[in-house]
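Question: Send over one sample?
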Amino acid sequence: GMGEVRPHPIYDDFPEKRVGFIGSVAYWVDLDLIAFLAEKRPDYQFIFVGPVGVKVSSVSGFKNVHFIGRYPFNQLPGLIAGFDVCINPYILDGVAAGCSPLKLYEYLASGKPIVSVRMPEAEQFADLVFIGDGNQGMLEKLDEAMSMGAERLSTLAQKQVAASAAHGWDSRFAKTKEALADLLYETI
């Protein structure tokens, strides 16, 4: 089952309630949203895995926002396994509206709850993804995702893994080509 992928050892130093993002932190990541969430929920840890290509001064004052850098692709399942919730915090402009859903499939395959801004890729999976409107809506969905009971989490995970498998994704990432992996990690 999903328990086979062990959380990455870096999380030994992090408290629980981890909200995670994997990918480039670029101008399409809504750091104002992250600042809002981090301030409202100081007990949630916001963890960004991947290269940082923009100024992050708007969130640098928060002790619960962490940019841990880029990791080899084969470590990503363990990094996602350490998240309690995956977040899709894109600025809703032309870029996000047309962005590839590949990262969403990664998150779905992990079986972790996903909280996303309202974008077409997320709405394809509206029954599986928590979609929040505006900062307050994202906070409410984040709280809901974070407080799911074990039974509900397990049911959601099974549905997500099935949905990602239907899109040709193996839940253990075994079939992913390195070339695609690199592309995934480099872009949205």
